[in-house]
């Protein structure tokens, strides 16, 4: 389950609540594209902004409509207590795996993060992917801590934040982390602009934001890399440079893919929880022009 | 209300819930010490870790036991929707003012933060203090944005994160911000190690962590500065240097004051929500020795 293309859909919502019909539409697109797994309630799925009840509903809807494709559910929360509740509910709803980031308000220490993963894996019956995202959690994993957590039972993958741009440096970085972790634990790259480089450098998975909204585009890169065609994967990714530039200029991928889904009519506008705003004005026009030029849909 | 010593108590809790008896004890100590205001559900009050219902209960208990001392309630949340609900509940429970930090998971842009404060102040009937805490919110205010937000109705104070150590530089920093904001908006310093310098530099308030657990100590510094006795305020603060060093070495003040309250028997141990841990081992021994040497109680 923690290999190939894991597509992370938005959780479209407004101030009234989750837009369930739009969410199901997004899931159905991923099923039609035949992605390798569906990662709901990642950062792209705005897990941190939803109530416990809304999160349980997202997992249930995804499982109901995902067919044979495994659903991985984000269970991150500020409190260990809430993480344990979310893990239980995700399992009850039929999630095949869970994804856990050490979300923080007070910056966490390594022993606190280890304690969180220890308590969670103790309680789990499905496998877990460690979600390393310093940009949103404020927590920076060392490779040593990754190694300690990866040896806990149920840990099956690590979602890492990007890799160096240089192919040799990327391979070295993946290799260094690989030395610290058991061989059954896969590595998955995130930061879509780095995905081709990460897959070419030996990551077994791509935890993908654009996979949630442009699944065919993300699959083409993934399949090229999996077939050993590193050059083609790189070329397909470099073609998307204007999209990566939009991510860079708009605080990351979330606001851009939200606007992309709005522009495609897949979700209503706005689809992000306030105070977050998707692109407007010139940024939105630039995105529309980019989507047309790159034939993204 | 947004002047003098505003004392920020812990919200003692365990995995089962809030320890209401211990919380009331902390409030009663602040009333006995006669602090100028009580700031519940600040970062020290672990607002981000509590449910909406628990937060309403904290405000109600504080108001019930605070007597004539005004209660300021933290209403920060990731979603504007939740901030508005918390504002309504805090007002209904009798809070005299509210405190709002632009809490984030996705880093926020300035226009998103402005939108949050605009929506909130539109709905408020009590005054609001802007809570500027980049260490926990990941958002850095510019003075220009402070000026724009301070001109919104209901904004009455800004809780700023420390000031430069040098008295002249501190005065210049406070002066620059003061130029941007209306004269009815007060400035309050936080970061306890900087409090004497901030008060001496012209801040009207100290939003104080140690005020919540050592109120007499914090009041002595505040009253000296308010009386124009800058040297005495500085001397009283410098005496606490071993405490400021403990804050520096333990990721800030929260884990230290939690352990201090545990050591005094004011709260049960542990009193922080997992995965957070208060001090243990050598750190805890060092705190106990510091409290004894400085006669803190």
Any overview of this molecule?
The structure is a homodimer of 297-residue chains. Chain A has helices at 20-33, 52-65, 80-92, 110-123, 134-137, 143-150, 167-180, 195-200, 210-213, 215-226, 230-238, 241-249, 254-263, 281-293; strands at 4-7, 13-14, 17-18, 37-40, 71-74, 97-100, 128-131, 155-161, 186-190, 205-208. In chain A, helix 3 packs parallel to helix 4 (110-123) and helix 10 packs antiparallel against helix 11. The longest helix of chain A has 14 residues, at 20-33. Helices cover 48% and strands 13% of the residues of chain A. Chain A has one domain: Alpha-Beta Barrel (TIM Barrel), CATH 3.20.20.70. Chain A has 297 residues and is of the alpha/beta class.
Please describe the topology of this protein.
Two copies of one chain form a homodimer.
Chain A: E1 4-7, E2 13-14, E3 17-18, H1 20-33, E4 37-40, H2 52-65, E5 71-74, H3 80-92, E6 97-100, H4 110-123, E7 128-131, H5 134-137, H6 143-150, E8 155-161, H7 167-180, E9 186-190, H8 195-200, E10 205-208, H9 210-213, H10 215-226, H11 230-238, H12 241-249, H13 254-263, H14 281-293
Parallel strand pairs in A: 1-4, 1-10, 4-5, 5-6, 6-7, 7-8, 8-9, 9-10
Antiparallel strand pairs in A: 2-3
